[in-house]
Amino acid sequence: xxxxxxxxxxxxxxxxxxxxxxxxxxxxxxxxxxxxxxxxxxxxxxxxxxxxxxxxxxxxxxxxxxxxxxxxxxxxxxxxxxxxxxxxxxxxxxxxxxxxxxxxxxxxxxxxxxxxxxxxxxxxxxxxxxxxxxxxxxxxxxxxxxxxxxxxxxxxxxxxxxxxxxxxxxxxxxxxxxxxxxxxxxxxxxxxxxxxxxxxxxxxxxxxxxxxxxxxxxxxxxxxxxxxxxxxxxxxxxxxxxxxxxxxxxxxxxxxxxxxxxxxxxxxxxxxxxxxxxxxxxxxxxxxxxxxxxxxxxxxxxxxxxxxxxxxxxxxxxxxxxxxxxxxxxxxxxxxxxxxxxxxxxxxxxxxxxxxxxxxxxxxxxxxxxxxxxxxxxxxxxxxxxxxxxxxxxxxxxxxxxxxxxxxxxxxxxxxxxxxxxxxxxxxxxxxxxxxxxxxxxxxxxxxxxxxxxxxxxxxxxxxxxxxxxxxxxxxxxxxxxxxxxxxxxxxxxxxxxxxxxxxxxxxxxxxxxxxxxxxxxxxxxxxxxxxxxxxxxxxxxxxxxxxxxxxxxxxxxxxxxxxxxxxxxxxxxxxxxxxxxxxxxxxxxxxxxxxxxxxxxxxxxxxxxxxxxxxxxxx
Length: 620
Description:
Largest sheet: 7 strands, mixed
Number of helices: 22
CATH class of the largest domain: Alpha Beta
Number of domains: 2
Helix content: 25-40%
Distance between the termini: 116 Å
Shape: elongated
Oligomer: single chain
Radius of gyration: 34 Å
């Protein structure tokens, strides 16, 4: 019996081992089929079906008359399907790269950018050429997981193409920060990075659609099983006038290029111009020179183009209208004049003998006209001091008024703070200095360096020293002068319209501030500004010689001294002086005095504006 039991023991052991294995396999099958069944079914379906996004057409950007500044066109993109494209296959990477003119490393970098998005196409290269599309289609069977998508791309219609580049801004790859802030973006999306494209991204982007595709073993679409159409973005109607914008860009570019080509102005190469309606704050034209081509910023050679712009010493990506600050020079004198009058240091008729010199703290300041041998103007009033830009008038009477009075007046005109313009990135505030600011700014210096000196008040009085402004702030301040006190927040967008055309938002003029002063003060200052343009000793008389008198331009030139370099030039003005409807500000870097460099551009802008208003001739 014992021997029989010993013979049956291996049989029983084998039986139990087999039973245990059978139970384990059964439990495993039950787990895979019942518990994990839905998951594997989903994987099976996902291998056969794909939910592909359909990009939404971006909203259009139109000028005030409906002329397109930025629209969309159809383009083709090379994409890959995760799970179907093997990034470890070097032959596949090489073949794919040769067809779309990318290196395997660049393709892998694009794939890494979209890491974590396993079920949606990863865009490898946008805006394919016709030849690249044909090549991909011809070799599609050799490229598993590669597909060609059709998607809308930004374009800028001719002849206006690439107008107002700093206003419109550009599209660029979504940043990690933007992905964190808005999870509806995908890593290969193009989004607004600057200008109105960024400011109104939420309105312009639209809502993407989706389509369900059945794909084969290579990841190629076999049939469309369903489709949800995208919703296009909203359209922006701007305050800009495309024809005036083109005229301003042409006039400013020609002057800057001419100066830059001269050996006398080796540092010339940049400038800014702005045209504004003082009655509403609407910006009719805004130009920063040099500009850039926004279409190339999101096109097939974006990286190379961006690198070239970033290395350009002229800083074409900088919006000089809003992001660059400069000393205003003599163009600031109308504000100083009002501070002098308000302080009681002088009245509009107070006589002043201009000998060309001012003395303070052992220093002697010499007026600009003395070294040129220009005869002394003799006894003058405030109006004549503005017309002839007499520094010693503003030096001495500005010092009597005091820095606090000048600073208060400057801030009342909006200097030292943002204008509130809705444009990304926001505008810089500039600087209105005073003794408190200097004491804080130089707190780590000896007491003598923290003290405010009368000579510094004199510098600020003529728009020099620590005082800095943006061209946009100058336009707002001269709008206040034009309106005899009131000024509005600068505005670039008039309406936001749904894709169907209905208006969903209207941007109304917004009062930004008001400077109170007696009418006699305004008229004395504006009379002096009219004299700048048409007076026998006006600093812009040559630039405006023969300009129609009925338009009554009132303006002020400015020349800003820059140590070791040629001066900056300003012209700021408005017309008609008695019923202003347009403000023009022109600034040119290192191109010479305002009367000779900025004023001629301003004249061309006024001519273009009134020609368009009266329809006397067509502009491109």
